[in-house]
């Protein structure tokens, strides 16, 4: 317990208060990277800007922490689901179902995806962080499951990574659609229904 009068978040930098990361996720999703202000993150988190700098030296450092600690744990959740001793189809349906129902429908996460797409040309480090932390681990996990299923005879021959891209395509479409077209009045996507129908079709095509 901190002594009376000590700042609320005077802890090791490694602690990275959840309040700051949660506020940063909201601000990045709403404002984009360029327009995001650390003052606003600090205000929403209930800390001073000086206290925020005790944990993160730059806005890029804060973005990396948001992706690493607030978003990428979803990959670990999918990994845990997929590692269950069940047939490939069941594992994929559980993992993609979780993404469709929890991740792709979270406006904060889709807002960060929009941020990465929109600002990666001027801030390539954002795309690098997202690719290294979210995209590549996810594709590598799914491709590994596909390769193992091929070895068991559950999936027909083919490039496991290309199969993985095909399976995840609608999830990317859903995030782009929700952030780009729904705000101008396009019909909202039922992401779980899209994921279910896509899997019904693609998994049949992947069978031997």
Description:
By secondary structure, the chain is mostly helical. Helix content is 70%, strand content 0%. It is built from ten helices and no strands. It has helices spanning 18-31, 38-45, 49-55, 59-71, 73-82, 88-103, 107-119, 124-151, 160-180, 191-206. Helix 4 runs parallel beside helix 8 (124-151). The radius of gyration is 19 Å and the shape is elongated. The chain starts with 17 loop residues before the first helix and ends with a helix.
Summarize the structure.
The protein has 208 residues and is mainly alpha-helical.
Main pleated sheet: none
Q: Stretches where pLDDT falls below 50 for ≥5 residues?
A: 1-15
Helical amount among residues, as a percent range? over 70%
Following the backbone from N to C, one meets helices and strands in this order, namely HHHHHHHHHH
Query: What structural class results from the helix and strand content?
Result: mainly alpha
Report the average pLDDT across residues: 85
Radius of gyration: 19 Å
Distance between the termini: 60 Å
| Number of β-strand runs | 0
**Strand content of the residues, in percent?**
under 5%
How large is the count of helical segments? 10
């Amino acid at each position: 317990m901190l002594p009376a009068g000590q700042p609320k978040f005077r802890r090791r930098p490694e602690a990275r208060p959840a309040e700051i990361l949660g506020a940063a996720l909201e601000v990045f999703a709403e404002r984009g990277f360029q327009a995001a202000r650390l003052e606003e993150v600090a205000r929403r988190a209930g800390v001073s800007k000086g206290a925020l700098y005790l944990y993160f030296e730059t806005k890029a450092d804060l973005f990396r922490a948001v992706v690493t600690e607030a978003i990428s744990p979803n990959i670990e959740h999918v990994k845990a689901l997929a590692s269950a001793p069940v047939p490939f189809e069941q594992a994929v349906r559980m993992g993609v179902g979780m993404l469709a129902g929890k991740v792709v429908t979270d406006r904060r996460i889709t807002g960060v995806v929009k941020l990465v797409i929109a600002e990666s040309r001027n801030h390539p480090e954002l795309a690098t962080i997202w690719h290294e932390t979210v995209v590549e681990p996810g594709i590598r996990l799914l491709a590994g499951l596909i390769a193992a299923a091929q070895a068991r005879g559950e999936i027909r021959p083919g490039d496991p990574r290309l199969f993985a891209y095909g399976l995840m395509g609608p999830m990317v479409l859903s995030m782009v659609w929700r952030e780009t077209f729904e705000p101008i009045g396009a019909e909202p996507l039922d992401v779980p229904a899209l994921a279910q129908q896509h899997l019904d079709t693609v998994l049949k095509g992947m069978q031997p």
